[in-house]
Design goal:
The structure holds two protein chains of two kinds. By secondary structure, chain A is mostly beta strands. Chain A contains no helices and eleven strands. Chain A is 0% helix and 57% strand. In chain A, strands 2, 4, 5, 6, 9, 10 and 11 form a seven-stranded mixed beta sheet that branches. Chain A has a four-stranded antiparallel beta sheet with strand order 1-3-8-7, with no helix packed on it. In chain A, strand 5 and strand 6 form a beta hairpin. By secondary structure, chain B is mainly β. Classes of the chains: A mainly beta, B mainly beta. Chains A and B meet through strand 5, strand 9 and strand 10 of A and strand 7 and strand 8 of B.
Chain lengths: 127, 111
Amino acid sequence: QLQLQESGPGLVKPSETLSLTCTVSGGSISSSSYYWGWIRQPPGKGLEWIGSIYYSGSTSYNPSLKSRVTISVDTSKNQFSLMLSSVTAADTAVYYCATEVGCSGGYCYLVNYFDYWGQGTLVTVSS
Amino acid sequence: QSVLTQPPSVSGAPGQRVTISCTGSSSNIGAGYDVHWYQQLPGTAPKLLIYGNSNRPSGVPDRFSGSKSGTSASLAITGLQAEDEADYYCHSYDSSLSGVLFGGGTKLTVL
C-alpha cells in the first residue's frame, strides 16, 4: 500500500518561497498508474487543489496559483516537490500530497480522484 | 462561494438517512465530469469515500452511496452512526476555469 509523507519548514516569512517535499513509499513514483498532487486547506476552511505532476514531468496547475507554483519530481528519490513563491498570510494552510488515479478496473475517468493522502503538514506564513 | 455548492451543514439521528448535495453547472458536473467524494474526520487527512460518481473503494461500508444527475451529485449515508460525524467534500473539474474543484464542504453532525 502506498504511503506518502510531507516534509518541509513549518514557518515561512512573507514574500519568501514555500518548499515542501512528498516522499512516496510502498510503490514507485514512476508508476504509469498515478499522477501526484498537492492540495491545501487553510485553517477552518475547505480544500483547494494546487497542482499535479506525472512521473514524466508533465504538470497541471490551479489557474489561480499558476504564476507562483512549481511542482517537480525526483524519480531517483521517489519524491515530488512543491514550491510556492511570494507567499502571504493567505497561503497559511495544511498542505497535503496525494496520489491521483485516473483509471480503475479497466475504466478511465474524466477527472482523476485522490486515492492515497499524506497526513498533511501545517505551513504558517508569518514574520 | 465555491463553484460546486454544498450545504454548510446537515444533521441526523443515529440510524437515519442523510443526503449531501453538490450542485454545479453546465461547465462541470453538467458537462459530464466525474464527481468524487471525500470524508474528513476531525484533525485527519481526507479519505476517498466515493469515486467515479458512485463507486466505493474497498473498505468503505455500503451505507455510503453516490449518484449524479444533470448538474448535481449527491452523497447518501444510511444507518447513520456516530463515527460518520465529519466533513464531506465533493470534487470535480470545471472546463471554464480549467481546473480541479472541490465543493465548499459539508459538516455532518450526528445528533
